Amino acid sequence: MRKIKEECGIFGIIGPDPMPMAGYTASALLALQHRGQEGAGIATFYSDNSLICHKNVGLVNDIFGEFLRHVPSTNVAVGHVRYSTTGNNTVENTQPIETVHSRLTCALAHNGNITNAATLRDQMVNRDGKVFFTTNDSEIINMLLIEQMIKCRNIEKALLKVMDILEGAFSLVIATPDKLVAARDKSGFRPLCMGKLGEATVFASESCAFDSIGATFVRDIAPGEVVSVDKAGNEIVLQQKTDGSCRGLCVFEMIYIARSDSFIDGLSVYEARLEMGRALYRQNPTEADIVCGVPDSGLDAALGYSLASGIPYAPAFVKNRYMGRSFIEPSQSSRERTVNIKLNPLRAQIEGKRIVLIDDSIVRGTTSARMIKPLRQMGAKEIHLRISSPPFKHPCYFGTDIDSEENLIANHKTVEEICKSIGADSLEYLDIENLLAIGKEKGIRYCDGCFTGKYPIPVSGSGKHKFDD
Ligand code: AMP
């Protein structure tokens, strides 16, 4: 069975007065739905401090209707949307993960992947006799937190200790009856930011979640930082000791994962994608009649290419809005079928034209091949495919769902061979130097391990959760 990988979205809110915190959380999770469509959950606390958590597999809009009608106004809530690939998409593995213990009652939402999870879990189960209720690496964080709370009774210090034990990627939001605590791993692999909604404090994976509930952005959580806020708005900030050499925001957040209307670590995702398109043009100016993007992932870079080249930007496809993501279909044949139904070429636009077609990535090659064939059938004269990322060659251990190395087309075909196999007239990827230059002026340093095989921190063992198998 393939392991679960998390590419999730998290949100939390705390304030001095009881408010519809679960409702705000549901709206924010809807804005973060692109980060996970397989399951979602919201946890909040009644006035007697008891924890209530509602979660299920499925989409935000389908999960919370009845729950939101009955849940009272509260002071704190935390929520999670989950993306898994195959296997174990069960209610038990959805988040937030609840802990009720004499030293700590909390609900935790995690985005990322703990690379030493298998080792930690093995120790806890076989040495310490602990019992786990999920096959989720995030439950390990709760267990470690309790251990540290028994020692120091201070959630911020306990979390800082836990962060020294964990390896890998984690952005966390943890709700207790009277505090909301956010933390980001020392590399800053996954985004996490903080905002204000009136007197309430909010944390989210992406700033687009703040816009959706009328909150204002305050700042990004720094790599290695713990920020805790109580109901009155008092803040405690602690910083993990690190020399900064392990810094590395996942570059695929900028390329594909995040929503274009978000800002991450000071950089507009939209601007970053425009620049990827501009850079693609500068790398190899290509003559064409129109520039088109593969909806939706290639649209911003296509606009950037058009702005840099002066070639008109035009839609090449009509997207069926009622289809899910093709990438997460379990088999190659179902992925191909889904791509076909999802996007249909706009004959009136493309007939007789030389097209520069832009997409964000080629992983297995399914999407590109399926895009190009119907464009040709509907009369496109030339199709020049431009990809706003370098070729995918290596696995991600830090929470992005990338297929195994043997399934990555760039590992067994040259660029020319890929171009031929997908049926394009020419193919060009964005150079890694041009990609990494984006956001440099903001001090952003990326993890580009999926393209280069070089990761900002060592990956112990396989980095995979063996306990899923
Ligand atoms: P493929 O069809 O296997 O070559 O995958 C490439 C397509 O899938 C591109 O159009 C991307 O927008 C999308 N994609 C790439 N990586 C991911 C990911 N980790 N999760 C979801 N979609 C992805």
Give a description of the structure.
This protein is of the alpha+beta class and 469 residues long. It folds into two domains: 9-242, Glutamine Phosphoribosylpyrophosphate, subunit 1, domain 1 (4-Layer Sandwich), CATH 3.60.20.10; 272-444, Rossmann fold (3-Layer(aba) Sandwich). 30% of the residues lie in helices and 26% in strands. The protein contains 16 helices and 23 strands. It has helices at residues 21-31, 60-63, 65-70, 117-127, 138-152, 155-165, 208-213, 251-257, 269-283, 299-309, 332-342, 347-350, 366-377, 415-422, 432-436, 449-452; strands at 9-19, 39-45, 51-57, 74-82, 97-101, 104-114, 168-175, 179-184, 193-197, 200-204, 216-220, 225-230, 235-239, 249-250, 263-264, 267-268, 290-293, 317-319, 343-345, 354-359, 382-387, 426-429, 446-447. It has a seven-stranded antiparallel sheet with strand order 3-2-4-1-10-9-11. A hairpin with a 2-residue loop joins strand 5 (97-101) and strand 6 (104-114). Helix 11 (332-342) crosses helix 13. The longest helix is centred in the N-terminal third of the chain and has 15 residues, at 138-152. Mean pLDDT is 92; it is low at 1-5 and 465-469. The structure holds adenosine monophosphate.
